[in-house]
Structures are given as structure tokens and as C-alpha cells.
Amino acid sequence: EKQTKDNNSTECSEPGTMDLKFTSSRKYISISVPSKSQAMSPHIKSVDDVVVLGMNLSKFSKPTQFFICVSGVFMFYLIYGYLQELIFSVEGFKPFGWYLTLVQFGFYSIFGLIELQLIQDKRRRIPGKTYMIIAFLTVGTMGLSNTSLGYLNYPTQVIFKCCKLIPVMIGGVFIQGKRYNIVDVSAALCMSLGLIWFTLADSTVAPNFNLTGVVLISLALCADAVIGNVQEKAMKLHNGSNSEMVLYSYSIGFVYILFGLTCTSGLSPAVTFCSKHPVQTYGYAFLFSLTGYFGISFVLALIKIFGALLAVTVTTGRKAMTIVLSFLFFAKPFTLQYVWSGLLVVLGIFLNVYSKNMDKFKLPSLLGLWKKRVEERKSRTLSQTV
Questions:
Q1: Crossing angle of helices 154-161/211-238, nearest 10°?
Q2: Cβ proximity of 149 and 99 under 8 Å
Q3: For the chain, first and last CA: distance in Å?
Q4: Long-range Cβ contact pairs of 254-259 (< 8 A, separation 24 or more)
Q5: Does the pLDDT at position 173 exceed 60?
Q6: Which keywords, in A-to-Z order, does the entry hold (predicted)?
Q7: CA 125 from chain center: how many Å?
Q8: How many CB atoms lie within 10 A of CB 159?
Q9: Could you tell me which residue, 122 or 105, shows the higher pLDDT?
């Protein structure tokens, strides 16, 4: 607050201040203007808790939060992968991947609605337009992924899903004109070679290999590469809860798929088939959706607390274990080429993680190791002389 003695001055006050005249003094009051994000979401600072399945993770330390989220992702998604392959092992079900996705989205919407009723703040924070985009990407990711299992072995599908870096880098180069360092390029090359080698092995040993599955899972991969960053930005900007994200994105996605199946006349044959095998279809689909819902809740918590990069790293490790369990529980042709190509993909993932965290940890260079070795020898010789 400032006072002046000049009562006749009619100068305008500076930006961000309000001019009030009292008897013989001019008072300037500072006014703070909220940012755009705060104006859009006035509650953004009021809710900082991260609640997963009714458990408030904000009460725990960061290492404990990470351990809980990783344990939840591995436990539920390993069961999820087993049930997904079990459903497609039912004879005659392979053409109905989109209907399975419709049922899955329906269960997810119900689970999200139930969970949202259990929390105190039920307001929708993220705009509807953002949810429409997220729902479209989610439909592309899960629908195309489920449908590709009608043409591919499950391990091949999972290997493709591990390689999100490739479409991300291609889009960055052609759309944004980005330049990548040698580590990123090496990671993309390792993933590409591993994918090609794994696909060639699958086409050699799998009796029903179809290139259509490769196209479907590649499109799902492109959508999957975008959705994590979109979810992270939306949840951090508007501080949306996990249950809200699941409810609105999957319920809108349910409408998308239902409209698509109705227009393509794919709904009636799927309903007829599943009504003849209710336990193997709807029963497995319920458990499949339940474990998937629990898993996605922990993934969203990982994204919100630690970011999309760490979440992708954890889910990639889960996928690697899913491949091993797939070969153990389901009889399928096997060749050592699967192992070498899978390890090449894992190397690409490691290089990608290292590239994003080069400032946090550095691998020792050969020159540095040699200098360290020389210094140790000099100190040892000096101590012996003394």
C-alpha cells in the first residue's frame, strides 16, 4: 500500500493494480490473477490425494507408493494376460475380438461408476472433449489389440506392444521435426530388428500366421504410444482421479464400439455365439475385465505419481513376464529365435530408458575405466614403496 501527497494527479495505475481514492490519499491494491489452468479448474489445488481401489497412496512414502503400484500392475496384469489368451483359445471365438472389447468396456464403466460413488469428490474435472479423444485412442489400443489375437500368437502380440518407441520417434521426426541422439536411434534399431526377427520366427513356426494381425497390432501400437502422454497431461492439468478417468473414457469408448458393431452388423453373430458358451465367454470376460480394471487403476496411479516414462518401463517388464508365462501355460510352437529376438527388444527398451535419464546415471566409458585403473596402480605402488 502506497500513499502520495498529490491529490490532483489523474495518472492511470500500473497493470495489476487498482486505483482507489480516499480523502487525501491514493491507495494501490495488488490483485493476483489466476492462471488459465486454475481458472479452468478452480479445485486443482484442493485434491492432492492419489486413491487406488479405495486405498489412499498419498499417505505412504514414494518408495512404498512405487512398490504398491508395481506389485498391483504385475499381479493383476499377469492374470489379465492369462485370461485373455484363455478366452481366445475357445474354439470359434477368434472373429469376435471387437465384441470382447465392447463387453470389457461395459464392465470397466460399471466398475468405474461403483468406485466413483465410494469417493467423496464426484465432480468431473477433465473436459468432455479431452475424454472423447482419450476414449478414441483407448478403443484403438484395446480393440485392435484384442482383434489381432485372432491372427497372431499371443507372445508376438505382446512383443509388438513393447515397442511404443518406434511410432513415437517416427511421428516426432515427420510431424515435429525432432532430432534424436545416437542412443535413441540405437534403441529404435534394436526394437525394429527384434520385432522383425520375432515376426519371422512366428511366421515360420505358427501354422495360422496372418499378416493382417501385424497390421492390426501396429495400428494399436500407434494409439498406445499417444494415450499415455495424453492421460498424463490431462490428469496433471486438471487433477482428475483414476476412477473418473476410467469411467468417462471407457463409457464413451463403449458407445463408439457399440455404434461401430451395429453399423457393420457384427453385433448379432457375436451375441449368438456367446449365448451358447456363457461361462467361457461372459464368465471369463468378467474376470478378465475385473483384473484389467484393477491393473489400469495402478497404471494410472503410476502415471500420475511418477510420469508416463516410468509407467511404460514397468508395464514393459510385465509384458516380458507375460510372454514367458504364455509359453509355460499354453502349448504353442517354440524356437530359440524367440529368445534372441526378445532379448534384442529388451536391449532397445533399456537404451530408451537410459537415453531419457542420461543426466541421472551415466555408464562408465572405457577411457574413464582405464584412467581409474592407472590411478589405482599408482596408489598401490606408492603404498608399497612407503
A1: 40
A2: no
A3: 73
A4: 254/102, 254/105, 254/106, 254/109, 256/135, 256/136, 256/139, 257/98, 257/101, 257/102, 257/105, 257/139, 257/143, 258/102
A5: yes
A6: Membrane, Transmembrane, Transmembrane helix, Transport
A7: 20
A8: 26
A9: 105
Look at the block and give the residue holding cell 466413483: 116
pLDDT band at 245 (very low <50, low <70, confident <90, very high): confident
- Nearest partner of 277 among 89, 90, 108, 144, judged by Cα: 90
Phi-psi region of 307 (alpha: psi -120 to 50; beta: other; left: phi over 0): left
pTM (2 d.p.): 0.64
- pLDDT tens-digit series, residues 53-85: 767 788 888 888 888 888 988 999 889 888 888
